[in-house]
Amino acid sequence: MCGIIGIVAKNPVNQAIYDGLTVLQHRGQDAAGMVTCDESKLYLRKDNGLVRDVFHTRHMLNLKGNMGIGHVRYPTAGCSSSAEAQPFYVNSPYGITLAHNGNLTNAETLKEDLMRDDLRHLNTNSDSEVLLNILAHELNAIGKPRDSLDAKDIFHAVKRLHQRCKGGYAAVAMITGVGIVGFRDPNGIRPVVFGERKTDSGSEFIIASESVAINALDFELTRDIEPGEAVFITLSGEIHTFQCSDKSNYSPCIFEHVYLARPDSIIDGISVYKARLRMGEELAKKILKLYPEHDIDVVIPIPDTSRTAALPLATMLDVKYREGFVKNRYIPRTFIMPGQSIRKKSVRQKLNAIDLEFKGKNVLLVDDSIVRGTTSREIVQMAREAGAKRVYIASAAPPVRFPNVYGIDMPTATELIANKCSVEEIAEKIGADWLVYQDIEDLISSAHKGNEKITDFDTSCFTGEYVTGDVSTDYLEHIESIRNNYAMEKQGIDEGLTDLTENQ
After folding, report:
1. Which of 44, 122, 416, 421 has its CA 20 to 30 A from that of 219?
2. Residue 479: burial class (beta carbons within 10 Å; 0-12, 13-18, 19+)
C-alpha cells in the first residue's frame, strides 16, 4: 500500500505534488519522494520519513518544472531503507522515472530475465525498480528517438509490460521531455484514478491513487483507470487512453474499502464512506441474529477507520454510540509500521481511554479488521483497565486468514491471528468476552452495491483465492522466508544497540 501521484500542468507542479502526497500520507509513512521535469532536466528529492520531513524549502525551490510524479511508501517486505524510496530513475532510454503501488508476484523471475536477457542492472530489492526496467526495456526496443515517440509507442510498451508482469500494480511513469503515463494491472487490484482541471492556459491533468487527492487539488475526477488500461498525458497537455491488455478481469482489492483508503475517496465508482456504512449495517444484523438478547450498553469505535461502520451499527442495535478513545494524531498508523515490536509499543502511545465511557458498562468495541491481533489485545486490556464490566469486539471484515501478496503488509500466515484459530479461540487470545466477524458475503455485498458492474473483488486475505492465479505454496514460503530473515537481522541490530547502550 503506497500512494502515487503525477501531474502535467501549465505552471510549476512542486507544491501541488507536495500537497497531493500529504493527502495520500495515510497510504505510507516510511518514505516520500518527488521528481519534476523542466524541459530536458530532472530534479529529484526522496528520503525516509513523512512528506513534511522529507521536503524542506531548499528542496522545494530546486524541484523545477511543470511536470512531475510523487510517491509515499511503506515497505511490503518488512524493511525500511532510503535506498528503496521512490520514484526510481533509469537513464536509458530517454530518462524515465517511475512510482509504483503494489507488488509483482513474478519479480524474481523478471529480475533474472532483466539481468540475463535485457542486460539491465538492478540496484535494489524493490519490485518497483523491476517494473521500471521492464517499461524502459520495452520502450528501448521500439528504437525511436525521443522527439518521434508517440502515444501508440508508449501503449505498445505498456502492453508488453502487462504480458510480462504478474501481480497487483498501479504506476505513474514520467518520460523526460515527453509526458506521463499511468497504468494499472489487468485485474485492477490496486486503485488509480485520473482527473482534469481547465485553466485559461489550457487543460491540466492529474493521476493519483485516490480521488481525494484529485479533489483536494481542485481537479475534477474523470474516472478510474480501467484494469489493463494506460493513460498518457503529453508535456503539452494532450491526453490519450488505450486498453493495453488482451485479457482483463475487474477484481479490485476489497481491503481498500475495509481499511486502506480514506473514507472521502471514490474508488472504482464506489464511495468508500458508503461502503463502510453498509458494512456496519450488515454487521449489526449478524449481531442481532447471534445475540438477540444482548446486554451491550455502549458501542465504541477503535479510531479512526471503524467510526463509519460503528455509527450505523449502534443505531441498528439501538445502543448509545460514544467515543471512548482519544487518538494521538502524531503517531503513525500501527498497521503499516515496519516491525511487530514497534506496532505493539505504539498502541498505548497512540490511544488513551476515556474512563467514564467504560466504567461499569458492557462495551462493544468496533474495529475495521483484526489482522495480527496485537492492537486488539492491547485495546481490550485498556478497556478493562478503564473499568468495563464486559468487553465485546465486532470486526467489520471477516477473519484475515491468508497472506496478501498484492502490496499489503500482511504476507505471512504465521503473523495472522485467525490463520489457524476458531473465532472462540481468537476471542480468548485477545481477551474479549465474545467476538463477531463480518461474513464474507456481506462484505462483498457492501462494496458491490456501490458499483454493481463490478462482480468480482480480490478477497484473497479472507478466502485464500488469488485472482492472478499464479500464487503457489512455494511463493508464499519464499515471502515468509524473506520476512523471517529480516526479523532476525532486525533483532540482531536491536540487541546490538541495547548492548552498546548498556556498556556506555
Report:
1. 44
2. buried
> pLDDT tens-digit profile of 106-143?
999 999 999 999 899 999 989 999 999 999 999 999 99
Nearest to residue 249, comparing CAs of 446, 466, 456, 102?
A: 456
Q: What are phi and psi of 459, to 5 degrees?
A: -120, 25
**CA 227 to CA 241: how far, in whole Å?**
12
Enter the C-alpha cell of residue 62: 530546486
pTM: 0.92
Of 2, 79, 253, 461, catalytic: 2
Nearest to 29, CA basis, from 395, 346, 276: 346
Percent of the chain as helix, strand, coil, to the nearest 5: 40, 25, 40
Residue 267 · residue 257 · CB < 8 Å? yes
Q: How far apart are CA 183 and CA 161, in angstroms?
A: 10
Is 165 in the active site? no
The DSSP code for 132 is H
Q: How far apart are the first and last CA of the chain?
A: 40
Percent of the chain with pLDDT over 70: 91
| pLDDT for the residue numbered 398 | 98
Between the CA of residue 267 and those of 194, 196, 239, 313, what are the distances in Å? 11, 17, 21, 23
User: Interior CA angle at 374 toward 47 and 495, to 5°?
Assistant: 60
- Residue whose C-alpha is closest to residue 182's, from 155, 153, 156: 155
Spatial separation of the C-alpha atoms in residues 44 and 97, rounded to whole Å: 10
CA angle 53/57/60 to nearest 5° reads 90
Q: How far apart are CA 10 and CA 497, in angstroms?
A: 50
Reading the block at residue 105, the C-alpha cell is 508476484
Q: Which amino acid is at 85?
A: A
* DSSP helix/strand/coil, 325: strand
Count Cβ atoms within 10 A of the Cβ of residue 275 and give its class: 0-12 exposed, 13-18 middle, 19 or more buried. buried
3-class SS of residue 235: coil
Residue 328 has pLDDT above 90, yes or no: no
Residue 180's pLDDT is 98
Specify the pLDDT at position 499: 52
Cβ atoms of 100 and 128 closer than 8 Å: yes
The model's confidence at residue 496, banded by pLDDT at 50, 70 and 90, is low
